[in-house]
Design brief:
138 residues; mainly alpha; 6 helices
Length: 138
């Protein structure tokens, strides 16, 4: 496989992983009773992050499993793709900090929470990779 093809596959995998992460965190609250939350740019992201629950954790694990099974050729790559499910959220936070500097006063803790949630998706990606490996061996 050519180097250009490999980089396109990695970029595609990252985009899919980040999209699934956004969906896993924000979609469960779409259409639910809304609590008005003030955010400079992304109120739907704030609502999803501040109302995290068990369903979000399960969806992140499943999202990691999907990217791990589809794109993870090796366990390390699968795990990194699982971590990639949460990569969009620090960028959302940084954009909001640029617009409103006082909007994310405890951003180091927020970024650590994103990392922990990414670890959950990374474990799901390892599970997805293992399932794909196991089914391919049969």
């Amino acid at each position: 496989m050519s180097q250009k093809r490999v980089s396109e596959t990695i970029v595609t995998a990252w985009i899919v992983a980040a999209t699934l992460g956004i969906v896993a965190v924000c979609l469960p609250f779409y259409g639910a009773p809304r609590y008005p939350m003030d955010a400079p740019l992304f109120p739907w992201v704030r609502e999803g992050v501040e109302m995290l629950g068990p369903i979000n954790v399960v969806l992140l694990f499943v999202s990691g499993g999907v990217v791990g099974a589809l794109f993870g050729r090796r366990p390390g790559r699968a795990f990194l793709l699982g971590l990639a499910t949460m990569t969009a959220f620090p960028f959302f936070a940084m954009a909001e900090m640029i617009v409103e500097p006082t909007s994310h006063n405890v951003w180091p803790i927020e970024f650590f929470i994103y990392f922990v949630l990414g670890l959950i998706a990374g474990i799901g990606a390892l599970a997805g990779w293992f399932l794909g490996w196991f089914l391919a061996k049969r």
